[in-house]
Amino acid sequence: MATKALSFALSFNDLTNCFSSSPPSAAAAAKVSVFTVRCSSGNGERPWKNSDARLVLEDGSIWRAKSFGASGTQVGEVVFNTSLTGYQEILTDPSYAGQFVLMTNPHIGNTGVNFDDEESMQCFLAGLVIRSLSISTSNWRCAKALGEYLAERNIMGIYDVDTRAITRRLRQDGSLIGVLSTDNSKTDEQLLQMSKSWDIVGVDLISGVSCKSPHEWVDKTKQQWEFSSGKVARENFHVVAYDFGIKHNILRRLASYGCKITVVPSTWPASETLKMKPDGVLFSNGPGDPSAVPYAVETVKNIIGKVPVFGICMGHQLLGQALGGKTFKMKFGHHGGNHPVRNLQTGHVEISAQNHNYAVDPATLPEGVKVTHINLNDGSCAGLSFPAQQLMSLQYHPEASPGPHDSDYAFKEFIELMKQGKNRTKESLPELSALHSS
C-alpha cells in the first residue's frame, strides 16, 4: 500500500525570519538548529467515516448518512422525538415497534447505555436517526457505547444527517414511511418502491411485543430513584395488567404503591381475568393502530363496569373504542418528554412524556364520559374518566422515566378507584345475603 510523505528542514534562521522583521543577532545566528518534519498519510484513507447509508422517504427525498449499529435494509414509519434525554428508554419502549425514531436533540450517545434504564427486555424500534453521534461516553453507570449496544440487538442507526430538515418535513407533511439501508446493491428507486409499498396503518403490532404467558411482577422503583414525596397507603391491591407493550416502569410504579401485579398477554380472555377476582385492571401502552386489534377492544368491553380499570396510551385508545368512540391517526403524533397537558379537574398544567400517533375523538364518546385532560399543543384528548363504570385513562405516560414526574398522582387515583370498588363490594354483600335469605 502506497505511503505519501512530505519532508522538509527548518533552521533557526528560518523560524526567526518568520516571526520577526529584524535580523537575528550574531550570537543567535551562530547557534543554528536544523530539524526535519516528516508527515505521512498512512494508507491514504480519510480519518473520518464516509457516508455509507441512505434514508429514502416515500415522498422521494433521499438522505445520505453514516451508519452505526447494525447493517442491512429496514422499512418503518419515521417519527420525531423531542426529548433531550432518555434515548435508552426510547430504544426499549415497545410502543415504537415499526418506527424509525428521529431525535431532535442533536447530540446523542454521550452517556452510553446501562441495563437499569431499559423499559423492556429488548429494542423494538426499527431504527434510530440522529444528528451527531458522541465519540465518547461519560457516565458513572455506562456499561457500553450506544453503537455497540445497537449492533448487539440488530438495530440500525444513522448519524450525520440533517435531522432539523427532516423534522420540518414531517411536521409539514406528516409521518412518512421510510427505508433505511446500508446495502449498495439496492438502487434509490428500489428503496423508494419499498417505502411506497409498506404501511403501518391497520397492522397488529401488539401481538409482536406482548408477553406469551401470565407472570407475576414484584420489582419496585429502586429507593435511590423513588420520587414520591408523600406517604403512600400500602394496602395490597391485586392488579391484572394487560401487556400490549407495557413499559417496566409502569409496573414498578404500581408495585411501589403496594400492588400485587399479574401481567397477562394481549390475547388473555376477559373471563380468565375476572376469574382472578382482581381489584383493578390496567390496560397498558402499546404500538400501532388501535383499530387493528379488535380482539383487544372486545376484551376491554367485557371488563369495563365489572372492575375498576386504568388505561395508558394504547389502553386509553382501546377504552375509547370500547365505550363506542372513534380513534384517528394524527398528523405526526406526540413523541417526547416535554408535552404540556392541562388537568381540567384541577386546572393544573403538567409536563408529560408522550408517545402515540393515534388519539380518541371525544365528540364520538357517549354521555357520561368526561374528558379530564387535554394536550395544550393541539387541544387533543389526553385523559378520560367514566365514574359510573369506575374507569380512568391517560393518553400519556404518568410513570415517565426519565422525564417529568408531574403525573405520578394518577397511580394514587387508580389506588383510590380500587379502594372505592372494594368498599362497594363490601356494601353490596349484606344486600346479596338478604336477597338470598328471602
Task: Describe the protein in words.
- It contains eleven helices and 21 strands.
- The chain has three domains: 36 residues, no CATH class; 144 residues, Carbamoyl-phosphate synthase small subunit, N-terminal domain (Glucose Oxidase, domain 1), CATH 3.50.30.20; 211 residues, Rossmann fold (3-Layer(aba) Sandwich).
- The chain is globular.
- The N terminus and C terminus are likely disordered.
> Can you count the helices?
11
Into how many domains do the coordinates divide? 3
**CATH H-level name of the largest domain... which superfamily?**
Class I glutamine amidotransferase (GATase) domain
* Number of β-strand runs: 21
CATH class of the largest domain: Alpha Beta
Assign the structural class, choosing from mainly alpha, mainly beta, alpha/beta, alpha+beta, or little secondary structure.
alpha/beta
Instruction: Give the overall shape, derived from the CA principal axes.
Output: globular
Q: Regions with pLDDT < 50 over 5+ consecutive residues? A: 1-12, 432-436
Radius of gyration: 29 Å
CATH topology of the largest domain: Rossmann fold
| CATH architecture classification of the largest domain | 3-Layer(aba) Sandwich
